[in-house]
Structures are given as structure tokens and as C-alpha cells.
Amino acid sequence: MDDYLAARRYLYTLFQSLFGNEPNSKQLEAIDVGLTEQAFTVVTERAREQYEEAGQLARFLSVLSNLPELSELISEYTKTLIGPDKLAAPPWESVYTSKGRALFTHNTLEVRNLYRSQGFIAAKYPHVADDHLAIELDFLAQLAERAQKELAEEGDTALRASLGFLNNHLLEWLPLYTMKITEAAISSSPGFFTATAQALLVFAQADAKVLKELVD
User: Fold this and answer.
1) Where are the alpha helices (DSSP H) in 47-152?
2) Cα-based torsion angle of the residue sequence 18, 167, 169, 13 in order, rounded to the nearest 10 degrees
């Protein structure tokens, strides 16, 4: 259990950093490919995955091991997650779960209220849409850290909150987001953030499966 909780905290923190920060040398140098592979192994083995998704994980580890030039990563990050051109795969939940692909809908407010219920407030609140992918991952990383602390007290409040958020929010739109970002890359070649989104989906689905078994 210790290894599993540590692995999921590490992975949520890693994915949050990749989707939430413009690439920089310090961030990239801190990535430990071996540790990342070990963390994935702990989570997927616990989920007893049969590895239809092995290709996505291998691709992600490969791009981590063979990173392009920093300028290329920054360009891809801007094009994929910021703009100024229309984003093929906008990284906000409400775009996929509301009519009209709008931001700051009732979905956004629901996510914000869930954050508040756990004592979490987004750093740029209220000037950002709280259902951005990086913020949702930050929330799950914070809950993962709390779950490690609760282990000594044999509590599962943070794990239950994590499962509820995965099932009712992140996994409600992450599959479609991943499909959109993958389709957008077909015309060229799957890039860093495409591989990262695919690996995140594998991890989040495996984590939800394990959490269900733990809290039931």
C-alpha cells in the first residue's frame, strides 16, 4: 500500500507539472524516467491491467527518454495548451461536458465547490477556470499526498474523494480530450503532449480501478 500511494502521488504530480507549466530546463532535468516507469508498474500491476495500453506507456517513456529541444517543447506546449490559434483539444472539462463547448459553466462551479469542500483553492482563483486539466491534476495530487498521511491513521477519506472526482469529473472528459489531441497530431507525428495525455489516461483509469477496490 505504501508503494502504491507513493506511486500515484508521484504520477499525479508529474502530469500536473507537464500540463500546468511551460517547459523549462529545471523541470525537465528533474524527470526521472526510471522512477516514472517504476511508478507506472506499481499502479498498473495493482490494477491487474492486461496491457492493451502497453503501447501508450512505452511511447510516453520513450519521449521522456528522448526529449526534443526545449524550444520545440515550448512551441508544442503553446500550440497544444495555450494558443493563440483555436485549440484542437481545449484542456477544460466544461468544454466536453456542457452544451456549446463553453467555459465557466455550472460544471466549473461544481468543480470549484468540490475543491472548497476539501480545503483546496486554485492558485489563480477566481481568474481561471477551475476545471483546467492541470488544476484537476493538482487537486488529485494534493489528495494523494493527504492519502499518504491518512494511511497511518487507517483513514480513507482522501481516497474516497479521489475516486469520486475521477469518476464524476476527470474520467468523464479525459478520454475525449485524449482522442481529440491524438487526432490533431495524426497529420504530423504524435508529439510530446499527445503521448503524455495517452499515458495520463491509462494511469487515471488504472488508479480509479484500484481505488474502487480499496474503498468498497
Assistant:
1) 54-65, 70-77, 93-97, 106-117, 133-151
2) -20
Contacts of residue 203, defined as CB under 8 A and 6 or more positions apart, other chains included, come to 11, 15, 40, 43, 44
Sign of CA dihedral 82, 88, 93, 95: positive
Judge contact between 91 and 133, C-beta under 8 A. yes
Q: Measured in Å, how far apart are the chain's first and last C-alpha atoms? A: 16
pTM more than 0.85? yes
Rg (the chain; Cα; Å): 17
Task: Give the three cell numbers for residue 200.
Answer: 495520463
> What span, in angstroms and rounded, lies between the C-alpha atoms of 162 and 214?
12
Question: Which tens digit of pLDDT belongs to each residue from 127-184?
Answer: 678 999 999 999 999 999 999 999 878 779 999 999 999 999 999 999 999 999 998 8
